[in-house]
Amino acid sequence: MHVSHSFSVSLLARTLKLATLAPMLLISPGALALSTIENGSSRTIDDTTTIDSWLVRDGSSLTANGATTDEIRAQAGSRLVLNDTKVTASGTSNGVELSNSAATITNKSRIVSDRTGLRLIATALGGSTARVSDSEIIGGQFGASLSAQSQLSLESGTTVTATNPDGIGVQSFGGKVLASESRIVGGLHGVSLFAAGNLPANNTLILDKTHVEGQSGSAIIVNGQTQTNVERVNIQVNNGSTLKGGNGTLLEVINGASANFNLDNSHLIGDVIVANGASADVLLDHSATLTGRLENVQNLAVNNDASWVMVGDGQVQNLTLNGGAVQFGNPGQYFKLSVDTLSGEGGTFHMHNDFTTGQVDTLTVTGNASGNHTIALDSRGTEPVGAGATPIVHIGSGDATFALKGGAVNLGAFSYDLIKQGNNDWVLDAASRVISPGTQSVLALFNAAPTVWYGELSTLRTRMGEVRMDHGKAGGWIRAYGNKYDVSESAGVAYKQTQQGLSFGADAPLPIGDGQWLMGVLAGYSKSDLDMSRGTTGEVDSYYLGAYTTWLDAQSGYYFDGVVKYNRFQNESDVQLSDGKKAKGDYNNNGVGASLEFGRHIKLADDYFVEPYAQLSGLIIDGANYDLDNGLSADGDRAHSLLGKVGATVGRNFKWAEGKTVQPYLRAAYVHEFANNSDVDVNNIGFKTDLSGSRGELGAGVALAVTDKVSMHMDLDYSNGDKIEQPWGVNVGARYSW
């Protein structure tokens, strides 16, 4: 690197000297032949021309179409047009050299020199300009070089290369470089920009969809030559442009230089290194990302969804965030950022934490902090230790505010908000924590099994009523059903449960008790979707087998129904976390339950009937333990349910064609759950769910005998209580008798 810098200093002096002597120079040493175009003349050459080198001066012009030449020099307001032309300079000559002149190089032209491929020089009359498109420029020491007041435009697939190990792709002494859809590569640095105080300068590098690479050094280096009052260099990296430094450095600012580095809609990985005595301001805009160190950067602005991704502890003098973000590395990395001042509005700090080990990203503002900003913290399934004891943000002074992105952060069994402590610190609020979405999903799954079981049982109960309507016949049946339950917070966790399923079975009279007994078997499947809040869901797939019996004394109307049912539950959590990620977990468990119902079918006048009844159901569900994939652990004890119900059904039988019967009915009941709690441990913290209490139930339905063998049934239900409401329940089915 020192070799390159000393060479650059000497080249600067030579450039100024050559700018003065250029009109007196006729031919470089080692050239074999020279053709001169002067006094405003014009000439066009093609692939048949065999002149070795050209000198174009005094406002003259040269157009080359498919030609092959040695070096070409243009001076004193002259112009070159190279189209599909090959220029190969011999010895120490430059490929194409412009002095107060202009060149257009297009259509796969190729310029090669062991020294400088394309050189732009300014004189007292002004600088030079070159527009290069779809062409290749190769130099040993410099691909291209330009002085102050000169402008180099690279367009449409142009490549500029310096092949020497200490070569520089493009070197500018205060000129303006525009590169679009091009590639600049140097053996040492990609682009070298000088900011000397005695040079009138544009000092601009604008890259658009362009790649710049320094193979062993920095992608871009800005050198102030240790002079005072140097011009500030403006660098813009736009629209998907990329920078690559062989030493990991994107931008290096040295020797008192000063630079503005603007990154817009591009994504870079590497460091910005500013030497002592130099200065640099960095602007990231329009979704740009910069992943790397910012060493000795004075001002950093991150705007409009752009991000600075830290790769280690960081320090910036002045940080401004306007809709931009600072990301403290990747998950599992823990860094500290220190800034003198913080300003802007709507900035986000993406921070990581592991409170179980005490590793937490921290932001420290030693001076004044202003603006409203958000902190995005990682969610975790493990329990935090001392979550409220470690300040995440500390400021020296100011009116800045900080809030958690997306609300409270999910850490283990609970969610924590961010609060201001004292005048200068922001910490997690351990005093007013609430249960986390992961805990909600765990409690809801362990709590949902009873309603799943009873929702499936309701279809069988209506099936029994249908059998009693046409008692004494064997048959098969099928029912589809759906139920909606809203469980309130008072049950230990709030959620909505939507169930849909299918049951089928067959039954036949038993040859005992004068045919008053009937025995059947059933099977089925139901799916229950649980909806907590903010995208957290659960699912219960239930497969079941059972047997049932009913007894009806036709003379007195007394009846008895009995059911025993075994269930296999497949449970799955899908948790939406506060940091936008998801956690999943699943487990299987079993349940077995029975229901006994006793009532009487009382016939009234005009084919009306009333059917008072009492029902008692019991259920035992296995406990289970499982983990979510974010580390949250859950252990649920065996759950119990004991449900009592008393009620009555009122209806009427209508006869229609050929003795068929239609039976509409209404039903009302009082329901009470006696089992008062189920214990669930989440990360070894105890929680309880409780569906105990009373509720009222209303129902309506109709049974219809379609033919002697086919009947149909529909039933609607509603219930409401302190802890659970069933907004609707519906089941429809058909029976075939044989």
Automatic annotation (TrEMBL):
Transmembrane segments: none annotated. Gene3D superfamilies: 2.160.20.20, Autotransporter beta-domain (2.40.128.130). The keyword Signal applies. Residues 1-33 form the signal peptide. Keywords: Signal. It comes from Pseudomonas frederiksbergensis. Pfam families: Autotransporter, Pertactin. This is Autotransporter outer membrane beta-barrel domain-containing protein. PANTHER family: AUTOTRANSPORTER, C-TERMINAL REGION OF AIDA-LIKE PROTEIN. Residues 469-738 form the Autotransporter domain. GO terms for cellular component: outer membrane.
